[in-house]
Predict the 3D structure of the following.
Amino acid sequence: MREAARIIRVDLGIIRGSYLVPPMFESLTERLGQALRNLRGVGKLTEENMAETLKEVRTALLSADVHFRVAREFVERVQAQAVRAGMC
């Protein structure tokens, strides 16, 4: 009985520790992590690599079924804050 319950939980998502992570959040976590890892090796943040990273972030949000306006506004706010902070 316990094994059958575990199989059902695995079908619903990824078990991480004792928590069930739904598949869309697992994918979003992986894609956002990859986008940020790509920035780690960069010596200085430029508008070009910032735009590329934000494009990956927007794509990750859209693939996780985030509404396109929410994804667009989020990316625009992050970009504006980075420019204000003098990061690029």
Notes: DSSP finds four helices and two strands in the chain. The domain at 23-84 is CATH 1.20.120.140 (Four Helix Bundle (Hemerythrin (Met), subunit A)). The two ends are 56 Å apart (CA to CA).
